[in-house]
Amino acid sequence: MKGEIINVGTEILIGDILNTNAQYISKELSSAGVSVFFQTTVGDNPDRLMSVLKESVERSDLIILTGGLGPTQDDLTKETVARLLGLDMDMHTESYDKMMSFFHKISSKMTQNNLKQAYMPVGAHIIPNENGTAPGVLIEHEGKVIIMLPGPPRELVPMFRDFVMVYLQGKSQDKFFSNYYKVSGIGESALEDMLIDIIDNQTNPTIATYAKPDEVLLRVTANAKSEDEAKLLLDKTDKIIVDRLKDNLFAREDISLNGLVAKLLIDTSTTISLAESCTGGLITSRLTETAGISKCLHSSIICYSNDSKIQYLGVRKSTLEKYGAVSRECAEEMLKGLIKNNNTDMAVATTGIAGPTGGTEDKPVGLVYVGIAYKGNIHVEEHNISGTRHRVQLKSANIALNLIRKQLIGL
């Protein structure tokens, strides 16, 4: 099947928005056996979009459009596709009811222009949107498939994963089976380098990487007639990946590091307290993304100043004067103070120089100490992290989360 992607939006053309949708969709289509030969970005102009569409239906079997499904006058993707195919637009009652329910839930009045989101080309299949008000649309027409999805990635990605990929797999004689690996501590390029030989020689299964801030999702997909046949293909690659990634591999499913750590804390009924200096509450914030963490998260203190470290954690003034707040000794005393004051099973502390100013030759920007106390043992690690202030904070939080993970699984 020949595929094509059309991204609609003037904001993409002028650089206000980074087009991550094209990369995501291309990788997904490749894993489904669809060859993408063209990618086009076109502004919110129906005549130019019509011109692109006319070429697309001549040369491609599958056309996926993103954007232009909103409520404003320049959102004209559905209308332009319908005009190209000679289809009328009609109210889709289920989409209308869902929109009404959404606006009622948020105690907001639905404006008249929102109604256009409920009008669909006659005969189209509707793709539900659980994270927004614009449904997706799938049209099968004279051997071609045209799929329209909203532009925001938080809406597009789950719709593509849960509906479009299922649809495409149903069209294939073979079935697709995937293994997922979550990696932390190395970037996408370093991960690719570790697996370059199998990536360069991939045919079946195929390998795709998806980078997030200090996390990478690795997906290995095999197509086969049966699950047993696919398993034989996937098992060969699985052994190589596990052997090479070692401790950098933190999960064999698509789960965030903070989500996994929160789950481990809950499943083991491990209570935890935190003292965050350079991370400013980032670790705590990420843990609280998981429902039920209140069972384990006892307390957290953001102790940025020296005075707060002394007052709330019992760090000695002499320690700060001799070694400084950014030191192994300070981190150790922060941990001891947490355990003494809170009596939790585990304690975690961070202290460092996030930058971009404040560093010295002895203690440069990016110097961070991350410590953990668990089962009577105190362990503090020193790290030198490069990059922006946000990068230093994010990396420090991930190091702390990974330390918690390792302690809980006995590494």
Write the layout of secondary structure elements.
Blueprint: E1 2-8, H1 10-13, H2 20-31, E2 35-42, H3 46-59, E3 62-66, H4 77-85, E4 89-91, H5 93-105, E5 119-121, E6 125-127, E7 136-141, E8 144-149, H6 153-171, E9 175-184, H7 188-194, H8 196-200, E10 206-212, E11 215-224, H9 227-245, E12 249-251, H10 257-268, E13 272-276, H11 282-287, E14 297-302, H12 306-313, H13 317-323, H14 328-342, E15 346-352, E16 367-374, E17 377-384, H15 389-409
Parallel strand pairs: 1-2, 1-3, 3-8, 13-14, 13-15
Antiparallel strand pairs: 4-5, 6-7, 7-8, 9-11, 9-12, 10-11, 15-16, 16-17
Family: Belongs to the CinA family.
Pfam families: CinA (PF02464), CinA_KH (PF18146), MoCF_biosynth (PF00994)
Organism: Alkalibacter saccharofermentans DSM 14828
The CATH architecture category of the largest domain equals 3-Layer(aba) Sandwich
Average pLDDT works out at 93
Question: So what's the CATH class of the largest domain?
Answer: Alpha Beta
Please summarize the sheet with the most strands. 6 strands, mixed
- Our count of domains comes out at 3
Question: What is the spatial order of strands in the main beta sheet?
Answer: 2-1-3-8-7-6
Shape: elongated
DSSP summary: helix tally:
15
> Separation of termini?
46 Å
* Helix content estimate: 40-55%
